[in-house]
Amino acid sequence: MNKQSGIHYLREHREAGSSKPVPVEVTRIRDTVVAGLGDLLQGAFDAVDDSLFELANNARSNNEQNRYFEAMREIRIKRKGVERHFQNAVAQFFATPPHTGHIQEDTTSKQATADSLSLVGNEDLEEQVALNAMITKAKAHFQGPLLQLQTRFSQVYPEATDESPVNPMAPEHLCSAFTEAIQALEIQIRERLILLKQFDRYVVSNLGMLLDEANRILIQAGVIPNFRYHGKAGKQHSQQSDRAGKTPEASQARAESSSRESLAAESPVFEQIHHMLELQRANAGQPPRSNDPNIRVIGANELVGLISSLSVDTHVQPGENLSAGEPLQIDLKSVIEQLLSRESPKDGKKPALKEMDEDLINLVSMLFEFILDDYNLSAPIQVLISRLQIPILKVVIKDKSFFSKATHPARKLLNALARAGIGWSNSDEKSRDKLYEKIHSIVQRILNEFDGDLALFETLNEEFEEFLARENRKASLVEQRTRESERGRIKSQKAQEKVDQIIKKKVGRDRLPEPVQTILINGWSRVMFLAYLRDDTEHRWQESVKVVDDLIWCLHPHQEDTERDQWVRVVPGLLKSLRAGLEEVSYNSSKLDEMMGQLKHELAEAFRTSSNAEIRETPEEDTDVSEPAETESLAQNQTEEAAISEYVAQIDSIEIGNWVEFRLVNGASFRCKLSAVIDEADSFVFVNRMGLKVIEKNRIELAHEMRRGRLTLLEQGALIDRALDAVVGTLRSKTA
Fold first, then answer.
1. 570: containing domain
2. Which of 3, 35, 478, 568 sits between 20 and 30 A of 154, alpha carbons compared?
């Protein structure tokens, strides 16, 4: 794929898209930035190409694969145009820079959100949320360099003012230029999100070096050379006068912006959810709570203190059964509102939650609503996890990274509890189950001991992982023995069926002498059975079948001299092979000599006989009578195959280790996991969580079970990940 560097592009389009002269101090920055962004963008497009190719390779259907290949083709064809459009737009920012600023930006953003995003579809909203998260994260990560650069650019550009500063390199401008550039691509939302993800990864995340270089160039030019920025609180020192606004409104706006930026850095997932909930409030016409003079917004620490008072009611005694009864359902929002109503007003102001804390409470409630409705969780685990709503709420208020970090100790523990309990059935004996006792004790310790220190979750998670490792080792050994036993049994069964089929076919086709039938059915079939089992290593199966064919051929009369000569050559080796095979399978030695003698006699008689010999092929029966029945059976099979075809595809998608639930006719159910798929017998073997076999069925039988609603595939994904996906999907549908 041809690549065109940003520098080469600038040499051809130095003043592209602009007739207004760029200030002398900024020309060098513009050339450096446009060239650097061009190189970074090439890396992003290469990564997009790799991602789409990987998705196409792993596609589950031809339609899905074609979709990814078409997207690759579309992007490859229009890639250069997108790059030129993006670089052109960035260069234009330096010629006529758009205005920036916290107060103006926040107001404009909220107005645009309320007016436009409330009317867009799910796909547009999904793209906008991803874009906002990218911008917010970049502004939080590069807060210092961006503030310095904005202050310096505002000195360079004469049209900039204190209320309306400028910064051509602001993340929102660069992201806007890119989204405008990719409008020409005719691709679906998933591919657009992949583009945005790689743009974030390769371009936006690497803005730091370009921001530093721009600041360095302006410092060399003498533009506020002593300006410094210290810390996230926005403290800066300069020999120039402080141009930032000092009104209470400006301070509050800066504080809210800083809070949002730190939130995006701490938990981009929750920031997206918080943004969608803001949209719902804006669409409902709810004013910001901080603007109400009669309300006192309480802080996080005070909220945690209020929630801790709830934990007193959740303390349990050591012998109490926490999984008794139905899952615990708590309306967290109502409970917190009741606690606030009990608080006495201070300074005549009524206590209320911050919108962000209220969103946290709503999000935890929605997460547990999903958990309590999740059929994939076994009933005892569902009840136990429902007891953790209050502790988890305290966790997320203190540490919002719970929603973004898969390694968060509380999140890891919840996922581990759900994963370990997926194999439980309602019929399991809980009182004598070590795994149940362990999970029960973990929940009990969290309810009694959690005081806000996440170290408790880390300790419990380590203990639980060690416990699971020991239990899984025992279950794995049992499962391995079960799997090997089943493979051996099924292969033996398949071998016996194959041998019986061949012997029946070959013996039934000819009227063979009784001694010959006895040797083949009672003796040589055992030789063929062992040959079939050993065929993978010794390749003796075809040889054993050939002995049967040779024996039957030798018992036929042969009149031609060439055939009789061949008979003379074949019989000695045939008799030798028969005796050796029968001796190998320990055939009765006292009968072996007698039967071999009878066989030699029959062969000799066959050699002497003429065409009037008894041995002849049995006339084939008239098959016309059975044709209507066969046609009817074939049509019925075709109809049945069409009806279950979609279910067969789902059965084929089950991987080793995946859990399923079977429901019996009497209403009982049990859970098990797929341990082995034995292709030669079309057999699916399922075991329980102890590694013991519980059921075995073939592909068609499983498809019929699924069609009747008696087989359910259980989702294997991490509990919190699935819950978050469900919550985000619900919010998108409500926001659209």
1. 511-608
2. 35
Q: Is residue 483 part of a domain?
A: no
Checking DSSP bridges between strand 711-713 and strand 659-663, what pairing results, if any?
A: antiparallel
Would 1 be classed as within a structural domain?
no
- Of 418, 436, 452, the last residue of a domain is 452
Q: Residues 262, 295: one domain?
A: no
Q: How far apart are CA 728 and CA 35, in angstroms?
A: 38
Q: Using one digit for the tens of pLDDT, what is the confidence trace for 69-116?
A: 899 999 999 999 999 999 999 999 888 888 765 433 443 343 344 344
The label of the residue with tokens 């920055």 reads: 29
As given in the structure block, the two tokens for residue 426 are 């309602």
Asked which of 452, 481, 497 is the last residue of a domain, the reply is 452
Give the tens place of pLDDT for each residue, 365-410: 888 888 888 888 888 888 888 889 889 988 888 888 888 787 889 9
Q: Which of 187, 53, 90, 204 shows the shortest CA–CA distance to 138?
A: 204
549 in the same domain as 683: no
H or E segment and range at residue 481: helix 455-509
Q: What is the mean pLDDT of residues 218-239?
A: 61
pLDDT tens digits for range 41-76: 988 998 898 888 888 887 777 788 888 889 999 999
Q: Which strands sit side by side in the sheet containing 683-687, from one edge to the other?
A: 693-698, 683-687, 669-678, 659-663, 711-713
Same structural domain, 525 and 559: yes
- SS (HEC) of 402-425: HHCCCCCHHHHHHHHHHHHCCCCC
Is residue 726 a part of any domain in this protein? no
Dihedral, 287, 291, 292, 294 alpha carbons, nearest 10: 160
CA dist., res. 505 & res. 450, Å (int): 74
State the pLDDT confidence band at 239, using cuts at 50, 70 and 90: very low
| Whole-number average pLDDT of the chain | 77
- pTM (predicted TM-score): 0.54
Together in a domain, 60 and 173: yes
Three-class secondary structure of residue 684 per DSSP: strand
Shared domain for 42 and 134, answered yes or no, is yes
- Provide the CATH number for the domain around residue 668: 2.30.30.30
Residues 343 and 197 in one domain: no
pLDDT for 254: 46
Name which of 182, 183, 218 is nearest 198 in CA terms. Answer: 182
